[in-house]
Amino acid sequence: MVDTLTVSAVIVLAIVAVGLVRVLRGPSRIDRMMAVQLLGSGGVAVLVLLAVGSGTEALVDAALTLALLAAFASIALATTLVQKADLAAKADRAPGKPES
Question: pTM for the whole thing?
Answer without folding.
Answer: 0.75
